[in-house]
From TrEMBL:
Keywords: Signal. GO terms for cellular component: cytoplasm. Pfam families: DAO. Residues 1-28 form the signal peptide. Residues 38-259 form the FAD dependent oxidoreductase domain. The keyword Signal applies. This is FAD dependent oxidoreductase domain-containing protein. It comes from Rhizochromulina marina. The keyword Signal applies.
Amino acid sequence: RGYGGGPGGALLCLLAAGELVLRGMATAVQHHHPSPGRVVVVGGGVIGTSIAYQLSRRGVGVTVVERESLAAAASGKAGGFLALDWNDGSPTEQLTRLSFRMHEELAADLAAALPDKGDVNYRRLWCETISVSGRASTCTATEEHEWVDTGIVAARQMGDESTIAQVHPRLLTEAMMAAAEQGAGAEVRIGTVQDVLTQPAEEGQDPKVRAVVVDGEEIPADHVVIAAGPWSSEVAQGLGLPPIYGQKYHSILVRPRSGRVLSRAVFF
């Protein structure tokens, strides 16, 4: 689902995590390697393009390798839902709150950098949980729930414009990659990663990456970031990294009649 799932979902803060990790990585690269070489990011979703965007802003060249197209999986079809305080009291509380603020800043930065295609539909909105009986309603729908045609059993507000926001996930992913391409020469390569090649390790040191094999061709790389979602384990076979598992979620997008905007936009 990329990010933006149900209450308590930790994945909403991954964009913030990506920038925090890359801040450290870019700083280390710049401090220790005046010529950092090439970074290859495996995965053209919201995390992979966020990493490419942040590195590009810091003058680091990046190649994003994507098997299908940008935002082809969960990053293009998730709800893009952001909640400020739904992870309060959990280990990800501070990261989630940082992420909420960063999304608003990022939307403004992309709009300024890409006047023609930087609008990621960021907006603040209300969120509500509704329980219905499943039977046709015998009363006229209220102004707050005009979209409901079955009997309302219960309704509870889960957040307002001070704590809830939404972004179009595909537009965000595409805009970050477009901004990265404007920066330090980032590029997208469509193909399947078949292997990550390493140099022989020196005594007492870990092996160093030297290339990524994409459709039989070696792409030189000094650093490789694997951001392929549930497919990351396939890419990382033999590298000794912990496995990553996917989990299915479902969402429904509703197109109101005549393009009208409903009184509430996100429902659980």
